[in-house]
Amino acid sequence: MIEFLEEPHLYLKDGILVKSVTQILQLIFPDKYKDVDKNTLSKKALFGTQGHSIIEHLDVSDLNKAKEEVEQIQNKDLQICIKEYLRLVKKYEIVPKEQEQIVSYEHLYCGTLDMTGTVQGLNSLLDIKFTAELDKEYLSWQLGMYKLAKGVEYDKYYCIWLPKKELGQLVEIVPKTKEEILKKLEELGIC
Predict the structure, then answer these.
(1) Can you tell me the distance from the alpha carbon of 151 to that of 62, in angstroms, rounded to the nearest whole number?
(2) What is the pTM of this model?
(3) Whole-angstrom Cα distance, residue 141 to residue 86?
């Protein structure tokens, strides 16, 4: 059984504290946000959390109704990002199946993957990013860890990239392999 304690952002598996995918990524990329002040980082994190929540609860099976719901979003930057999400959903025939699903790999790590679904009919694992820049290497580790934890081989792996005030993109990502991940976890002293 996996429990997620939201306020301290911790995962417990069978009552044992387990590292999160985010914590492991911080070990792999220790300098990723070193030049960003905490206030800015906090605002960006909140923006991303709000965006993920909206996408999770948006019914894209009726795009006209979804577009009407998006018009009600007060934050105009967020509204633009979600409109871009809907544009990508239509263009690439994205059909979400599971969203915000907690997964784990043994007792080594836990995480919450953004989405599984189909993209142009192909079974896909997707991550959603609202960042100004897209870090494919970071995403290859993140999606690789989710793939390993899920225990499913997908046809495609993508990032739905929704930068503020820009056109969103669907970017294909090559996930790290099980061997690469386990080697890195061993190097980090996690396994």
Answers:
(1) 31
(2) 0.94
(3) 26
3-state helix/strand/coil string of the chain: CEEEECCCCEEEECCEEEEEHHHHHHHHCCCCCCCCCHHHHHHHHHHHHHHHHHHHHCCCCCHHHHHHHHHCCCCHHHHHHHHHHHHHHHHHCEEEEEEEEEEEECCCEEEEEEEEEEECCEEEEEEEECCCCCCHHHHHHHHHHHHHHHCCCCCEEEEEECCCCCCCEEEECCCCCHHHHHHHHHHCCCC
Q: What is the CA radius of gyration of the chain?
A: 17
- Tens-of-pLDDT digits for all 191 residues of the chain? 898 888 777 898 998 899 999 999 999 999 888 888 889 888 998 999 999 999 999 999 999 999 999 999 999 999 999 999 999 999 999 999 999 999 999 999 999 999 999 999 999 999 999 999 999 999 999 999 999 999 999 999 999 999 988 899 999 999 999 999 999 999 999 97
Question: Other CB atoms closer than 10 Å to residue 105's CB: what's the count?
Answer: 23
Of the CA atoms within 13 Å of residue 102, those in its CB half-sphere come to 16
- Domains plus CATH for the chain? 2-29+38-187 (3.90.320)
> Which amino acid is located at 11 in the chain?
Y
